[in-house]
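Usage example:
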Amino acid sequence: MRISSLLAVLLSTPVLSTHLLVNVPSSPQLLFPSTLPASTSATLTTLSHSYCAPLRADNTFSFRNVTSGSYLLDVHAHTHFFLPLRVDIHEPAHHTPPTKKTDPATTTPEVEVWGTFRGNEWANKGEVVAVKKIVEQGKEVWTFDAKPAAGEKEYFIVRQGFSPLGLLKNPMILIAGASMLVVFGMPYLMDNMDPEMKAEFEERQKSSTIGGGAAANPLQNFDAAAWLAGSSGSGTSTPKKQLAEKGITR
Amino acid sequence: MRLPTNLLYLTLSILPSAFAVFADEAYNVDYHYELLGIPQPHTTFFHRPRKDEKATLLYTLSDLGVLGAVNPGVGNVVWRQFLGQDAHSETGFLRPVEGENTVVSAIGSSVNAWDAMSGREIWGNNFGGAIRDLEVLETATGNDEARDVLALFEEGGNAYLRMLKGTNGDVAWEYKDGSSDVPLQVSTNVRNVFVVSLHGSSGGYNLKVTILDPVTGKRTNEYTLTTKADIYAPEDVLLVGANSAAPIIAWTDKPMKNLKVNILGKTGDIQNLPLKESDGEITKVALHAPHLVQSLPHFVVHSHSDVSNRADVYHIDLSHKSIKLAYSLPKLPGQGAISVSSQDANVYFTRHTQDEVVVVSSASHGILGRWPLKLEKGRGSFVHGASEVVQRTADTYAVRSAVVTTDQDWVLVRNGAEGWSRLEGLSGIVAATWAEIPESESLAKVLEVEAESNPLSAYIHRVTRHIDDLQYLPDYLQNLPKRFLSSILPGESAPQKQGVLARDNFGFNKLVIVATQRGRLYGLDAGNQGSIVWSLGAFEIPAGKKWDVKGIWASPSKGTTTVRGAEGEFIQVNTTTGETIASTTPGSAPVIQSTVVVDGPLQKWLLPIGTNGEPGQVPAVLAPKEYLVVQGKNGEVKGLKFETKGDVANPVVTWTFTPPADHRVTGVVSRPAHDPVASIGNVLGDRTVLYKYLNPNIVLVTTVSDEASLASFYLLDTVSGDILYSTIHEGVDTKQPIASALTENWFSYSLWADITPTTDALPASKGYQIIISEMYESQIPNDRGPLDSVPESSSLEPSDIPNAEPALPHVITQSFLIPEAIGHMSVTETRQGITTRQLLCTLPSSNAIVGIPRTVLDPRRPVGRDPTPAELEEGLYRYHPVIEFDPKLILTHKREVIGVKDVITSPAILESTSLVFAYGIDVFGTRVTPSFAFDILGKGFNKLSLVSTVIALWVGVVVLAPMVRRKQINGRWMA
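Running the assembly step on the lines above writes:
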């Protein structure tokens, strides 16, 4: 842990100093906190005071000798985003030297932690984060959790290369493909139909078309190859009643 | 809790893909030297990170304060921790905890224990004062409890020895030495703790040894050794024997004739060991002793003269507490390095000389192993090393040593052969500059010759030249299919030839010339993964000092690079080869404060500015045309102009800017030297134009007040000294970095802003902010303000009215909150300035560099409402007060680049691309395309699929054509 503040000032006056232990628990966003890189660090910042602590082997950040104040806690990890926290450290009502045990019946807790939102005023506090006081070997340690905000950081974008399959997935292409199927498939279907059925079908079609018999779908007889070649023409499979060269200019 | 996450994704979705790093370009386009710094002799060792496994890692705490573990097999970094950030002196200490997976470091005022495998902290503690020594307390019985640590501090003129618990770093006991003696070192054997301090004044010290009880920390005894004639500084004490069974303290007399040794705990006894001189005076003496308590109490004295080195091995008799010479290692020419390693009780000395590696046991002079030295290239001689000796069978040994050479490489020598080498000398760069590769001018010269001679001979010359060129034709034809295939197939089209420096069509091949704090210069090839083209030891910088480079400049016309240091030293080298052209030693010229590249009547040159911002007289032929801005004695900012009088030009102060009382100037930034602007206005959605305020003569001055927590920014006109714009921020932490950048018609800066009692009424926030301001000629579109009708204008007389106010720019400002501090800001440069600029910010807490696009940092983003269609057309979207640093904006992506001090950019020939080079401890370089690579076919363009599509169409036509023809003929018959 490094302190870039005026140490001399801190040491010369009997300032209350608190020991904070920020824990990174296992969470759905980060199942194994031990996979965080060794460069992960946390900073506790307020005006003129800044503390920095590296991530420890037991997935905690340890801040010793933190003076009272309202701090912003940021965790900087190369792999995950962490939510910023607001950490308020108060001097307890009964001012006691840090080595002695504080009276547990003090009214305001010494350490309070909330979530905070960047871009909102400081007074806008979020959810309260539970703070536990652990007394180990006669020393008080205040501990709370810091959780990652989202899954792993994605640094790269994969280039969208050209893929024929991707092109086929396009709905426009799918619609075009379906209509092509109908255009080319229908005549064959008609040819292979039972003559009676065919007659029946044609009869029904005739009656159902509202605009008269000219009817049918012009697309039905569309000859793609001929159209591509710039010529019109009726295919061999064209029904005989079809008027030749309709709608196509030469 | 959901709010920030959602906003985060909102920002992510808005960002166009142009700013991101492509997966296939990462690690290909960018390059990174993951460096540690030069390993120090006492903080480098092999250690087993896992108790039960034989594999070792190589640990070091470098001169830059970087603690790292290196895989000795291949030489890659396993983990790193940058500890030197806040330490003022970078003398650190690093000790292994033998038999445990822990290493303990101490630097500055903090002591930390690290997990040797993962690099995570186990515990850390911080004290006042500065660390002087660190030892791990050995226990006699091999109990499993974590070993306690002894830390010696100097605090307020007193020595404090603190025993830190091995489990959590808490203080077990503290011993305060009430006297004003200088604490030197701490040492232990199993029974006692010895604190060695220098007693007396700087005219000569006596050594005071205080003996403490390791359990209670109480003083048991104290004695003084009379050394007044020999010891004048802490450096004169050679060694205070570490955790060996019989720790010693050793020093030499002043003429280096005798080595004096006291076995710690033996009161008043000084043993004289003569140092043998063979050829010339002894210049350097070093002692090496094992650090383990179970090792035999042997040590080696390694003495150097100017031309040779030799060594003597001594044994300590534990029962009589006497020292006797065991044997000597022969004299060998040149420099050498001896390292000690121990395995159980055995102690091995490994001697590295110019041409071989020799391993001897401390017990006898028999050579256990001898290997001829095979290095891949000349690396200078060995300075110091750490080695590991392994006994393979009864009489075969293997040794590997990590050795620092005089060329500042860190080389692993495995049984005499080079295993790997790390270019640690490249760390700690203090200055860098881009340089163009000189154009090959042979053809141009030949053509010039032809043009000048008479037509007939020119014609003959040309024909012969073409016939000569025919010899390259077979090669060319041979390579043709390969070139064709390589241009079609995906992948890096034409891999650059190694070792050939040539310009390329895109302008990616450029050199970067860097100067390190240890007095070395390197030339890096940015187009070839930053490979080292040349290196040169420019100046010898004494240990503990840094080369203070004030200016580095590569002259494009002459092909030379000039480097100027603070003490007046200067060196001029050939940019492409690194040959020294001219140099002067430190002290031969006046001390300089800074340098600036100026444009004289004949040429550009690097003008040194003396102390107090006085450049002094220069010859008239070199007189700079520009207005200069310098900083005076008390930090005030001054404008200078050179006035030519006869043969000389004198600087004249035209204006002075003095910051307000109790403010100090912390930064002055100007527009980059290459800062072209393609468009003089911003076209708005309704087709009107906001004209940019484009004044080349402006600087942004940052002043801070530490007491009042204020930061002010002033935009000054450098010709007239007028303040064009100023702003003040309250509640600014002046200890946090304040970075600023100025380019085109905008400037930006970042700071930590906090709630202040006076701003309680306003919704105040706590956090890092980035503030961006754009300057326009007028706030009304299609209006050019007061300068509208004037074809030319001067800052000195802005209008025809005498003493008129200067034309002030209309400034639009917006601030954004950012998640972390910005250490340094710079802006991308492109050739024409058509490409939008990107703000490059270094993030010291994330060890990264982020490129923030201008579209995000637009102060004209509509606040509190959705943008109108006209604004959308301009690319403005709704203002949101937070900019999250999307990982896709991080130029360094997964790489961790530590200690970046500065980022320099350079335009490529391609307008879309800017070259980026970041330096500090690590070196990182990449290319960025802030407006997408619009003028080059990227890797996304699949040539193979294009060719195959064309072929498929062709095949289709060939197949369908006869079908169609048949059909047409049939159709005619049918009709």
